[in-house]
Amino acid sequence: MSIGHYENFPVASLLLPRELRAPVAVIYRFARTADDFADEGDDRPEARLRKLREFDRELQRIVDGNPAQSGLFSDLDRVIRTHDLPPRLFRDLLDAFAQDVVKNRYADFAEVLDYSRRSANPVGRLLLHLFRKSSPANCESSDRICSALQIINFWQDVAIDYETKNRVYLPQDEMRRFGVTEDHLRERRCDPPFQALMRFQAERARQMMLEGKALLAGLEGRLRLEIAVTVQGGLRILEKLERSGYDMFRRRPTHRWFDWPLLFLRAL
Questions:
Q1: What's the distance, CA 122 to chain centroid?
Q2: Long-range contacts at 212-221 (CB < 8 A, ≥ 24 apart)
Q3: Of 75, 132, 180, 204, which one has the fewest beta carbons inside 10 Å?
Q4: What phi and psi values does residue 2 have, to the nearest 5 degrees?
Q5: Which value, to the nearest 10 degrees, does the dihedral of the CA atoms of residues 267, 216, 142, 235 take?
Q6: Which fold has domain 104-268?
Q7: pTM exceeds 0.70, yes or no
Q8: Domain map (residue ranges) of the chain
């Protein structure tokens, strides 16, 4: 899967029941297409926002019971109605993508979490709705996992986001506290202050992920295994980031083919 916010999205995973692979793929198409409006190509910000507003209007059309005007939204309409999915979760995704167009620095971790609440947490909640497991407790734990996955993706992509999108998700106040500036990113400098900052970020993400593991107690079967593998996948990226000395400038941590048996073993 290409680099981006949905690197860990369970697209048509063999762990999912066959009848849910198509709905998950439709949700992914919606999220991936809208995310590409915000990040891909050479459009100016106004054009990106216009495309996202058009998506939002089309979403509202099907919510209002009007015929969809594209194949994607026709499929999405069917999935939403068949599985009683909350349209608000799709709107949250669009709101986060629009924010990416206009905001490229984050003052503190609260702002990062607020972004993750809209960019990542809806994915987990939609999956829970598909499985009829969307209790308040499950949703709360899922939010911890999804936000952690989003944040881990940020730390994977510190270099890529800065160099290709002029985007910095590292909280500005914490950068100052650790003595890190954007010169570190521009110069690809992985010195002790930068390593200390990234160690702090990684440990916080790990703690969020471990807190979210409470979700597994309320699940069973394929969904439990799907989520367990996803959790282990995020933790594995943090392991690799730590092993590299937090130098994602020269070695971006990713999953390789030989990681998957380990992830399944740990999940089981």
A1: 9
A2: 212/141, 212/142, 212/143, 212/144, 212/145, 212/146, 212/148, 213/141, 213/145, 214/137, 214/141, 215/138, 215/141, 215/142, 215/144, 215/145, 218/133, 218/135, 218/137, 218/138, 218/141, 219/131, 219/133, 219/138
A3: 132
A4: -70, 160
A5: -30
A6: Farnesyl Diphosphate Synthase (1.10.600)
A7: yes
A8: 15-102, 104-268
